[in-house]
Design a protein that fits this description.
This protein is an alpha/beta fold and 316 residues long. The chain has 2 domains: 2-153, HUPs (Rossmann fold, 3-Layer(aba) Sandwich); 189-315, Riboflavin kinase-like (Elongation Factor Tu (Ef-tu), domain 3), CATH 2.40.30.30. Helices cover 30% and strands 26% of the residues. It contains 10 helices and 14 strands. It has a 6-stranded parallel beta sheet with strand order 1-4-3-2-5-6, sandwiched between helices. A 6-stranded antiparallel beta barrel has the order 9-10-13-12-11-14. α5 crosses α6 (135-145) and α7 (166-174) packs antiparallel against α8. The two termini are 33 Å apart.
């Protein structure tokens, strides 16, 4: 997938394109409904392009109302590529972009840079200074500039009669319900970041863990132990390597010497795997239990052995 970070980077001969616009926080099933429609519209050879932002616009416009991201920019680009997007224009959302009039955004980005033939948005899509742009404005400008607008309806979960949204996904993750989050996302929820040195207590106990840097990308689920996968994303063109893992989230209450939440993954049956400095993705499949403080090391070791057995069963 080609990644542009400014309309000026798009080659003059780029296009025609079918463009899907949105925040794409999570690239969940609702977002992928828009992308899938774009892929159908582009089946005659046009490029499928996602136009999105490097952060939630609310972080600039209303930081007091901005929720935590479901995914970060690196994760977003990876998921858009996996969804079948040919190119992504990842715009830096700052005060300057927030001040651009909606009409200027359409002309500069959709018409001049991407040569859009079709533009797909959700029904509640807003853009441009003061949120003045909406699907109706896009349709008027499309008639003048030669592109069609396709407004894609929400995807709703039949069992809950609720719109699939990033808000719902955050609620599920905050409750540790990674299984529901996965259904809404259409893929396993995950975090991505660098493996860093920790206290090495897991190694001392016979369960060495890969400790994630605190500045990782992605929404960290509720404290507890999870079954999942550690995916080593380093290596350039080398295929990614996936390892089954028991994942711990929390502050290590048994020892009470970790002062901020951390994500650490024990790769099953691996005791000498060196991942320090690697960027890895940790994917959550199922919650095994809540985080608990134990009265002694022996009780903790018994529980850890049981955790690993349950993780192995879940992932088998």
């Amino acid at each position: 997938m080609i990644v542009f970070r400014d309309p000026a980077e798009v080659p003059a001969d780029f296009g025609p394109s079918v463009v899907a616009i949105g925040k794409f926080d999570g690239v969940h099933t609702g977002h992928r409904a828009v992308i899938d429609r774009a892929r159908i519209d582009a089946s005659d050879g046009a490029r499928v392009v996602a136009v999105t932002f490097d952060r939630n616009p609310l972080s600039v416009l209303r930081p007091d109302r901005c929720p935590p991201d479901v995914i970060g920019p690196h994760q977003k680009l990876d998921l858009l590529e996996r969804a079948g997007v040919d190119a992504t224009l990842l715009l830096t959302f700052d005060a300057h972009l927030a001040s651009v009039p909606a009409e200027d955004f359409v002309r500069r980005v959709l018409v001049e840079a991407l040569r859009a033939r079709t533009v797909l948005v959700g029904r509640d899509f807003r853009f441009g200074a003061a949120g003045a742009g909406d699907p109706a404005l896009l349709e008027r400008m499309g008639a003048a500039h030669g592109f069609r607008v396709d407004v894609v309806d929400d995807v709703r979960a039949v069992h809950a009669d609720r719109r699939v949204s990033s808000t719902w996904i955050r609620e599920a993750l905050a409750a540790g319900d990674v299984s529901t989050a996965a259904k809404l996302l259409g893929h396993a929820p995950s975090v991505w970041g660098e493996v860093v040195h920790g206290l090495k207590r897991g190694r001392e106990l016979g369960y060495p863990t890969a400790n994630m840097s605190p500045d990782l990308e992605g929404f960290v689920p509720a404290d507890g132990v999870y079954a999942g996968w550690l995916v080593d994303t380093e290596g350039g063109s080398r295929p990614r390597t996936s390892y089954p893992a028991a994942i711990s989230i929390g502050t290590n209450p048994t020892f009470d010497d970790v002062h901020s939440r951390q994500v650490e993954a024990y790769v099953l049956d691996e005791t000498d795997l060196d991942l320090y400095g690697h960027h890895v993705e940790v994917r959550f499949v199922e919650r095994v239990r809540e985080m608990t403080a134990f009265t002694g090391i022996d009780d903790l070791l018994v529980q850890m052995a049981d955790d690993v057995a349950r993780v192995r069963e879940i992932l088998s």
